[in-house]
Fold each of these.
Amino acid sequence: MSIKNTIETKLQSLQPQFLEVINESHKHSVPKGSESHFKVIIVSKEFQGKMLMARHRLVNQLLADELAHSIHALTLHTMTEEEWLEKRGSTINSPPCLGGSLHKNNA
């Protein structure tokens, strides 16, 4: 199973009204086909009444094994249904890659 599919499967326990897992690895200096950088947009009633850090901790706990072994970067957009509707389904784009080790070698 791919890392993306594993993330999607594990996050189903939050019974999301909306879930999108985007592999953003291609935007970074990693080998082609890598699964190391992800953006997760998740809308769940489980986030109701929880501060942003508590929401992120909840997701991070579910993905602890992947964060320890496979995922290098994880961008989280965790919202309640009301917040999602207020934003009209939009999120902020992930920042551009600064080049990682390639940037250091070119400096």
Amino acid sequence: MGKIVAIGGGDLRKKSTLPIDLEIIKLTGKTKPKFLFVPTASSDSPVYIDIMCKYYQELGCETDTLLLLQANLDLVAITAQIKAADIIYVGGGNTLKMMRRWRKLGVDKLLIQAYQAGTVMCGVSAGSICWFAGGHSDSLSFYHPDDWQYIRVTGLGLIPGTHCPHYDSDTLGVKRADSFQAMMSKRRDTGIAIDDNCAIIFIDDQYRVISINNSQAYVLRKSSNQLEIKALPASKNWHKLSDL
């Protein structure tokens, strides 16, 4: 059974996504699940690792970190870490850098195998984009902060469509929603946008939205040369993914 929790954004230091994080743990069906944090997009930031692991330890998890930017990596050990995890949580940051690194190492294939084996796959921002066919990314801002634009980065393809996290925010003064709408007005696939402190849970061919403080998720689709934007209501009920 494939399980993905795509989180638009949030601040763990303020526990702003706590209801989502508790749902992630609940999806494992275990009292003390093994949590594996993947901080590739943040360049394996020690501060980020410390925050994530302490937070999920407080929620009752055993925690580990998958470090993929070191030299002389042990792929056997990496495979074992991924297979042992009940939760694989991908952190935010530079999506383009992360996806390139995963593909170079073959970690992309290992993560797909973990998904197929029933591991709860989740993440925020870049860690939300990665599960989709593609995502609206600010990756170029990491290389050229004074001259950049949002781009579409190819993900793992476990969920169809193009995803935009942080839909209600901006990066360096550029409104995310405006840019994503412009991108989707030129595309024929489905766009899935998620605000900060909001998440979509996907289990096989079904989904439902978790909203905190009126945050929302949206589906965007071009029809008759116009872009239609529809809010997806938060609910405990499941909906068919094919209805998006």
Amino acid sequence: MRTNIDIDDDLMAAAMKAGDFKTKREAVEEGLRLLQRKKAYAALLAARGTLFWDDSDEAWAKARQERERLEAVVQEPTIGYVVKPAPKDRKSKAAEPNTKSGTRSKSK
């Protein structure tokens, strides 16, 4: 997206020197990425102390059992398709002679 902005020349020069950027665009885009990361880090820090991680063997075994139990419950039932044989008294269309032709038979 093209945008024209008025940026303080001293601030831009300091940012370009600090980040070793070649263009002003690179400096601005990196600053925007930094703001985005900062917001994500703040969200992670807000979750601090609310998550619990148990790395013991018992916890891994329990998690594995729970995952296997869920997979067994969630599995879709398989649908079996049965091919029924054709009735024996019915003749195959391929075996029947072709009675329809371009000419008519004359019967007298």
Amino acid sequence: MLEQRIEEVNKANHVFYAAFGNLDIGEMDKVWAHQEYVTCIHPGWTLRSDWPAVRDSWVLIFNNTFSMTFELTDVIVQVAGDMAWVVCVENITTHQSDEPQQAKVLATNLFERIGDEWLLIHHHGSAVMG
């Protein structure tokens, strides 16, 4: 049972990063719980809370990015009942101009099992220096 839930959360996390990498707000809408208690902290940003504010942050990112690719490393998935979290390093390549930009972000993604789905309720990314 625990191994199955870990695999479900791992899949939900991959769906999140597919939506992120594809800059697809429709897909991003599907991976988040549309609740007032959802929160998001992008590197260098202030806290966004409540679904409309969280969603607006993704729209802003997607509208200002030409392309983005992710390679996840150091992935840790934990499940406790109907809550789960993923900690990972996002190795990101972005194309906002002619030159690709590389970045590493340490991320925590918190999921809640709502019905039969694992939905994102919190994303926190912190830039890794050096």
